[in-house]
Amino acid sequence: MPRVEPGHDGPERMTSTSLPARLSSAAPVSAAATSQDFTPRYWLFSLPAVLVIAAVIVFPWLFTLYMSTQDWKIGGGAEFVGLGNFAELAQDARFLESIWHTVYFTVLAVVLPIVFGTAAALVFHREFPARGLLRTVFVMPMMATPVAVALVWTMMFHPQLGVLNYLLSLVGIPPQGWVYDPGTVIPTLVMVEVWHWTPLVMLIVLGGLAGLPREPYESALIDGANDWHMFRHITLPLVWPFVMVAIVIRTIDALKAFDTIFVITQGGPGTASETLNIFLYLQAFQFYKIGYASAVVVIFFVIIIMLSLLLLYARQKSKWNT
Amino acid sequence: MTDHLLKPTRRVLLGGAAAALASPLVLRRAQAQGAFDWKKFSGQSIDVLLVKNPRSDLMQQAEKEFTELTGIKVSSEQVPEQQQRQKAVIEFASGKPSFDVSGISLHVQKRMAAKGKWFENLEPFIKNAALTAPDFDFADFGAGPVAYARQADGSLDTLPFFVDYWIIYYNKELFDAKGVAYPKTMDEMFTVAQKLHDPAKGIAGFVSRGLKNANVPVWTSLMLGQGMETVSPEGKLLTDTPEAVWAGELYKKLNKETGPVGSVGFNWNECQTTFMQGRAAMWLDGVGFATPLEDPSKSRIVGKVGYGVTPPGPKAHHAGMFADGMGISRGSSKKEAAWLYLQFMTNKKNQIAMLKSGAGAPGRSSAYLDTETIQASKFGKQYFDCLLASAKIARAGLPQIVPVTEFRDVFGVALTNMIGGADVAGELKKATETFAPVLAKSEQG
C-alpha cells in the first residue's frame, strides 16, 4: 500500500490509490467476453433501487408539485389554481418575513458555531493536562435530545424566574427579555444552537487537524514563522476542507431547524421568530392548507438547491489538490 | 328439609342470616341487570383517541372496570393536544378513522366536526332504552355545556364531559397586604392591578397570556363584558367594533402596564408559574389550571389563592367558556359498543372522580352538589362557589366557526403587537381585514 502524504493530494487521492493495484491483479479478459454486451441484463438488478427511489423521492416530489397548483384544504375539495399559490405567497408579508428570519437565523447559526468550534478544535489539538476529560465534557451538549434541550433553556429564559436573569443580577446587569423580546429572540435561539452544535464542528475540525503533516510546520519554524503565520498560511488552508464539511452540515441543520424554535417560542413573540419551517408547519398542520403549504415547500426546495450548489462549488474550490 | 326448618341448626341459622343480609344486594343487581344489559356487546373491542391530560388518565384507569362490566375491550391512546387535533382532522378526512371514539376541543373543532360529518348524532342513542342505562340521566348534563356542544342543525354529536370557565385567580396575601378588595368591574381590574403592581419587588399586578394564538381567549373573555362575541350569529366579524377595541385597550393596559416583563411570550404555563411563585397578584385563565396552585411541592401560595368570578364588564357579566366533548366516529362499525363506553366514562361516578382529583370541571351538574367531594377537596368552598357562579353566566369564549386556529393566529399576532405598544384600533382593523376573506372562504367551501 503506497504511503500518501495528505499535504499533497488529500483524502480523494487516498481512496484512488488502492484501485489500480486491484485492477492490475485481475485475470485477463478474453476478447469474446469483452465484445458481448451484458448491459440489458444488468438493468434488472437496478430495478428495486429505481422503484424505491421512484416511490419515496420522485413520486412525493411530483405530487408536491401537483399539490402546489391546487387550492386544497384538508376536508374540502381541491381546485386547480395554476401558479395562484405562488402569486399569493409573493404578496404574503408573513411568508416574506419568514424568509428573512430563516436567513438571519441560518447565517448566525452557521458562522458562530464554525468560529467557536474551530477555535475549540485548535485548543483541544494541543497537549495539556486533563485534555481527554475536557474534550468529553465539551461534546456533551451534542448528545442531548433537542426537545429536552429546548425545554431546559425555556425554563432558564423565564424573565422573572429563569436562572439567566438571576446570574445577570449578581453582576448588576438588568434582566433581559431573551426569547420573550421580539428584538432578541433570534439571537437568543442562535445561542441555544451554538451551545448545542459547536461541539460537532469542533469534532470535525479536530479530525482534520489530527491528520495534518508535521513537515510544513518544521519548515515554517526554520523560516522564522510565528504562531499566527503558521495558523494563517498552513493550518487554515490545510484544514479548510474539513471546515467546509462542517459548514455544509451546519447549513443543512440550521435551515431545517424546527424543534428548538417550536418548543421555545412557537415562532413568537408575535411572528418574530417565525422561520420558513414554522410558517410551513402552520399552513400545513394548523390551518390544513395543503396546496399553499406545498407551494412553500417548492420555494424552500429551490432555495436549498441554490444554496447547496453554492456550497458544493465552494467545497470543490477548497480541495487540497486544487 | 322440613326438619331443618322446624329445628334449625346453628349452621342453618347462620347461613340463613347471611342469605337474608345479602339478598337486597343480589336483588338490586339482578334488577339492574334485568333493566339494562351491559353485556350486550361483550367480546367486541373499540379504539379510543384521547388528548393527553389528567382526565384521559382517569378514563384509562376506569377501562378495566368498564371491560369487567361490559366485556368490551378498550384500546385507547393519549396524544398531546396539538398532535391529537391534527390526527383527528386527517383521519376523519380520510373517511375511515382508526378509532371508534374520539375526544375533541369544542371551542376549536366543533364546526369542523359538523362540516366534515365526523360524529354520529347521539340523541337516537340517548333515547334508545335498549342502549342507554336508566341511571345515565342525560338531563344531569348542564344546560350551558349541552347547548355549547349542540350543532347549528340541532344535533348533538358529542357529550360535553369537561368544561373550562375562565376565572380570576388572585393572591389573597398580596391583596390583604395593600388593603385592596377584589375588583367589582372589568375596569376596576386595571385600577386594582395598578395598586398591586410592584416591579421593584418583582410583583406584577396582573398576568395573562401574551403568546400569539394562546392570548386570544383573554381578549375575547374581556369582550364578553360588552355582551358581545367576536363573530355575530349571522357570521359577521365584530372584531373591529368599538366594543372589541375597548377589550383590546383593556388587554393592552393590563399586560403592558401591570404585567410582568416578557409576558408577550407567556402561555398559560408561564402565567401559572409566575402566579404560583407569588409573583403576580391576579391571573385570568381557565379554572382547569387550579390543581398545582394548591400543591405544596410546586406552589408558594398554597392556601392563599382566591378564586374569583370574572368581573362584569360595562354591559354584561359573562365568564368565557371552553369545553371538550366526546363522540362516536361516523365510520365506526361498533357504534353501540362505543356508546356504552361514552355512557360509562361520563356517568355520575366518573364525573365526580374528575372533580375530586382536580382533573377539571365536569359537564354534569350533580358533581358540584356532591357535598362529600366539596368538603374533602383541597380547593375549599370558594373554588366551588366560583365554579357554580361561572357556570351560570358562561358564554362561548371563542367564535363558533371552522377556521378557529387561523382566527387565533391572526388576532393573536395583533394582540402581541398591542403589548409591544401598537395602536389597538389599527391592529384590530388590520387583523379583521386579513381574516375576513379566510372566514368567507370557510363558509363557502
By CATH's scheme, which homologous superfamily of the largest domain in chain A applies? MetI-like
Q: Which percent band covers the strand fraction of chain A?
A: under 5%
CATH C-level class of the largest domain in chain B is: Alpha Beta
Distance between the amino and carboxyl termini of chain A = 24 Å
- Contiguous low-pLDDT stretches of chain B (5 residues minimum) are 1-7, 19-33
By DSSP, the count of extended strands of chain A is 2
User: How many beta-strand segments of chain B?
Assistant: 9
Order of helices and strands of chain B: HHEHEHEHHHEHHHHHEEEHHEHHEHH
How big is the Rg of chain B?
A: 25 Å
Q: Unreliable runs of chain A, pLDDT <50, ≥5 residues?
A: 1-27
Q: Indicate the overall shape of chain B.
A: globular
The count of domains of chain A is 2
Mean pLDDT of chain A: 87
Question: How would the blueprint of this fold be written?
Answer:
The complex is a heterodimer of chains A (about 325) and B (about 450).
Chain A lengths: L9 H8 L1 H6 L6 H5 L3 H29 L2 E3 L5 E3 L3 H7 L2 H33 L5 H13 L2 H12 L5 H8 L14 H26 L4 H8 L4 H29 L3 H6 L11 H11 L3 H28 L5
Antiparallel strand pairs in A: 1-2
Helix pairs in contact in A: 6-10, 6-12, 6-14, 7-10, 10-12, 12-15, 14-15
Chain B lengths: L1 H5 L3 H26 L9 E7 L2 H17 L2 E7 L1 H14 L6 E5 H10 L7 H5 L15 H7 L9 E13 H6 L8 H11 L19 H8 L18 H17 L9 H9 L5 E5 L18 E5 L9 E10 L6 H11 L2 H10 L3 E2 L8 H6 L4 H12 L1 E3 L7 H16 L4 H21 L1
Parallel strand pairs in B: 1-2, 1-3, 7-9
Antiparallel strand pairs in B: 3-7, 4-5, 4-6, 4-7, 4-8
